[in-house]
Design a protein that fits this description.
With 613 residues, the protein is an alpha+beta fold. The protein is built from twelve helices and 29 strands. The strands form five sheets. Strands 16, 17, 18, 19, 20, 22, 23, 25, 26 and 29 form a ten-stranded antiparallel sheet that branches. A six-stranded antiparallel sheet has the order 15-14-21-28-27-24, with no helix packed on it. Strands 1, 2, 3, 7 and 8 form a five-stranded parallel sheet that branches.
């Protein structure tokens, strides 16, 4: 896969673009069949297609249900397929049109939110109409999110489908809040780059052939892995209008270096992924509205689109980019990736001028985020090992919330920096000496990436900790072994101002579970310490209790609500392991492991994830 930067460019002729009816129909009663609306949508689609082809770029045309009733849209798709090699695919976005509303008697338009019965009926309607217009079934489809049951049904009924847009990275409470608490589409916790979804859960990648849903999934947008995580993702993506919506441009010159920096940072990910990098641009016509959008005039909207395409076109000309259709990409991905190969991203801030660095890791067992601004603490952890079945839509427990639950999430569960009481979720360590203690979360650092065989290693720059009469220089290394379902963390004492001193390293994980900011019921969680023939356990009752065990083999928590077991283990025989229950004001649990170490010694612990039946 040597240095391959793949780009998917996807257009959809949305005859009734989201938002656009409100704009073109200002002051008029709602009419989604209004001619001005349909004409403008088609004009924008033509402009998008022309811009891509002018730059010698192939497009995947995702026909919407509404566009299948429009002869001109169908003809353009056929012509561009013949002339430019564009793929004719089918989107499950853009359902609303007169025909759809009359049949389903609803204004719902998010396919994953319908009842299962309606999902099947809609899929058959849309795929059937596509076949009527083109004489074949599509090889690619997509939506903002596609739940596992929907994907499984599509694959079973239309086996030629091999690729789908299947989630939108970090569209959770953060995005919901910045949409005035009105965007009821919550799907945090998935991969940011293409993956093979499991049959059980779209977000959790398949670990083997048995779990393989049969499609390659791609994200809805390629987003800034720091800015989007810290704030609203809709402002930070390689979709030029995201950048305009985020106001990340010069209002006088209409230049947006950030857009190109973002594309380049995606190109840079080949360094961590065996020479492969990916990017996508997925743009519906609603963004290029003649009346302007996001406080930007139409001229700027059009210019940003042309400039974005020109940048991809230039990279292609220089041999630095391969443009593929979605179906082509699915074949390429399956030829070049194995199930257990992780997706890695060492990401630096390119927007705010800070020194911040995050490392993202995703494989079939977990998604983890390591924050170098907090000394290499794990600040987001999703236990994919549980492959949690999470049905969504009307008639299920999760009508709108499709997120994959977290064990650690600093944005929704406070992280290290919390209020005056209680704790937030984080996996870090404290260094203790003579009654003083310093959490590594307070020690900012940077990391470099290394790979040895099938293990990815994050090597952090050493940090110095100053106690009253002792200075300790300590280095952290974090190991992600492919297929192992664990994270190994090593703390290495490089230097001490008094070589005869010893310090205690207290490795800990404060965790809970959930998908939003609101606490879940923690009763049912069982905490335990184990060593040969001996077990101490606590059933969570919000009583603030703790237990310790010298030489224990593991400190563990079983969380039945998300079918997950998480444990901390060490190979140090003389370590003390502990478990701690939280209380109502701070509904967390803690598992930990502490040990005295001296100069030049190394202390290693493992965080392990498994499915709990």
């Amino acid at each position: 896969m040597e240095n391959t930067f793949v780009v998917n460019i996807i257009h959809r002729p949305e005859m009734v673009p989201e938002y656009a009816e409100k704009v073109t129909g200002q002051g008029k009663a709602e009419d989604i069949g209004r001619k001005a609306l349909l004409t403008e949508s088609l004009d924008i689609f033509k402009f998008q297609q022309e811009t891509a082809h002018k730059n010698n770029l192939k497009v995947t045309i995702q026909m919407t249900y509404a566009s299948l009733f429009n002869d001109e849209a169908v003809e353009i798709a056929k012509e561009h397929h013949e002339k430019y090699g564009d793929e004719i695919a089918l989107s499950l976005l853009g359902l609303p049109c007169k025909e759809f509303r009359e049949k389903y008697k609803t204004k719902d338009f998010c396919i994953w939110m319908f009842s299962m019965e309606d999902k099947k009926s809609i899929v058959d309607d849309v795929f059937g109409k596509f076949y009527d217009r083109f004489g074949f079934y599509p090889e690619s489809t997509g939506s903002y999110y596609m739940d596992a049951d929907l994907t499984n049904y599509i694959k079973e009924k239309y086996p030629m489908v091999k690729c789908a847009v299947a989630t939108c990275w970090e569209e959770g409470p953060k995005a919901y809040h910045t949409c005035n608490n009105s965007w009821y589409t919550l799907f945090d916790g998935g991969p940011w780059n293409p993956w093979i979804p499991s049959k059980q859960n779209t977000h959790a990648p398949a670990a083997n052939k048995e779990e393989d849903s049969g499609i390659v999934a791609i994200p809805h947008l390629s987003r800034d892995l720091i800015a989007c995580y810290d704030g609203n993702g809709s402002n930070f993506g390689t979709h030029p209008q995201n950048v305009l919506r985020g106001m990340i441009y010069d209002s006088k010159t209409w230049e947006y270096p950030y857009l190109y920096n973002l594309i380049d940072q995606y190109r840079h990910l080949e360094k961590y992924n065996n020479g492969y990098a990916y990017n996508m641009m997925f743009v519906g016509p609603g963004w290029l509205n003649k009346m302007g959008r996001w406080e930007a005039p139409y001229e700027l909207l059009a210019k940003s689109y042309e400039d974005g395409m020109a940048y991809y076109g230039q990279l292609k000309k220089e041999g630095k980019l391969v443009d593929m259709t979605m179906a082509e990409f699915a074949d390429y991905y399956r030829e070049n990736k194995s199930y257990t190969e992780p997706e890695c991203a060492l990401w630096k801030d390119i927007l705010y001028g800070s020194d911040k660095q995050l490392f993202w890791y995703a494989d079939p067992y977990m998604r983890a985020c390591v924050n170098m601004d907090q000394g290499g603490a794990i600040v987001d952890l999703r236990p994919y090992a549980a492959k949690l079945r999470w049905e969504t839509g009307i008639g299920t427990k999760h009508v709108q919330d499709a997120s994959y639950p977290f064990l650690i999430q600093e944005k929704y569960r406070a992280g290290y920096f919390t209020h005056y009481a209680g704790e937030g979720t984080v996996r870090s360590a404290k260094v203790c000496y003579n009654g003083e203690e310093v959490d590594l979360c307070l020690c900012r650092t940077h990391a470099s990436f290394a790979q040895e065989g099938k293990t990815r290693i994050l090597v952090l720059d050493p940090v110095e900790i100053e106690f009253y009469d002792l200075t300790v220089k300590i280095q952290t290394k974090i190991y992600f072994e492919e297929g192992a379902s664990n994270i190994k963390i090593e703390r290495n004492i490089l230097e001490m101002s008094n070589p005869d001193a010893d310090v205690t390293i207290n490795e800990y994980m404060v965790a809970c579970y959930g998908t939003t900011e609101y606490p879940e019921d923690m009763t049912g969680i069982q905490l335990s310490l184990c060593k040969a023939g001996e077990t101490k356990s606590l059933d969570y009752e919000y009583k603030c209790r703790e237990e310790f065990m010298q030489g224990a083999e593991s400190a563990a928590a079983v969380i039945p609500a998300i079918e997950t077991k998480v444990s901390l283990t060490t190979d140090a025989k003389d370590a003390e392991l502990y478990i701690r229950e939280g209380y109502a004001f701070s509904p967390m649990f803690t598992i930990g492991c502490q040990k005295k170490i001296s100069d030049k010694e190394v202390f290693a612990t493992w965080l392990n994830l498994e499915k709990a039946n």
